[in-house]
């Protein structure tokens, strides 16, 4: 038996809710830790049983939930389809031959380990030094669900591109990057008109959930996040009810579920995949065939970017996960420490390549000079 998400439809209302159930198939299970989009219609439908389904999906998004432990056979077959990017390093490099590698990095769960308190999700100095080196050799962007200022306060590298609020708020390097197109900082906000509404819903949600112990709210500028990592599971139903009652008043907002977090954001067609395409365009690679984007992320929202890479048939996605997940990524890494090793290997490979190219150029110059004499 394994766990899968199935869509439960209500024929009368046409409402769909994605819920995790136990089924006996050999396909890799959906990830605990994956997120589920609960449609607006579904939210309105929630009552008695439906709230239970919602709580089930909250449980499924918990990677540490005991019922969600993957079978080792599932993991092995998943790893065949999504091999370690470290094991496949040489193949990855050879696929990028003659192309400009552009790096896209998610933050939480990719550059920093998942921790209880979102305000304490610090990146190690070693990881920061690695990303700094990476940005010296490749255009590099951080693409996060957090608001741009917050993720910048963790990463603190001015030479990077930042796409905050799930890509809805993009800014180019403020200094120190040779990849700054035309010397100008790119600035793009996909949903500015939603700012007052997000502030309002944030306050309403804060108010509605304040009596539930352990709830942590985060205002991610274009997205309000309700964390339930520290909420007793017995209170999840009550939390779902409260969130639902607030959202009834906001038909222009959409609710998605991340890693023990509800994320409330505008219903616009913009996501991390669109942000990736926007950044490639800003860097001058819109219609290029000689670009090789690499996107590393751990969350369901990163799937939009993995999917774009598959559709463009360019570069590849790497999913950070210790457990099997349905993914559009080609490769996997287990945790942030492996991400760091992978990034360091990229830097080392690039340094060696540049040194080799320099030596060859010098030899050619020497031969030319000797032929002139
Ligand atoms: O796109 P990301 O950079 O991965 O951001 C997604 C969300 O990450 C953060 O929440 C997650 O990490 C927290 C710290 O480890 C953890 O406590 C929480 O349970 C996770 O959901 C961040 O706090 C959210 O705002 C981001 O949307």
From TrEMBL:
Top-level class of the enzyme under EC nomenclature: hydrolase
GO molecular function, one term: trehalose-phosphatase activity
GO BP annotation list: trehalose biosynthetic process
InterPro entries xrefs: HAD-like_sf (IPR036412), HAD-SF_hydro_IIB (IPR006379), HAD_sf (IPR023214), OTSB-like (IPR044651), Trehalose_PPase (IPR003337)
Catalytic activity, EC: 3.1.3.12
Needed cofactors: a divalent metal cation
Keywords: Hydrolase, Stress response
Family: Belongs to the trehalose phosphatase family.
Name used for this protein in its record: Trehalose 6-phosphate phosphatase
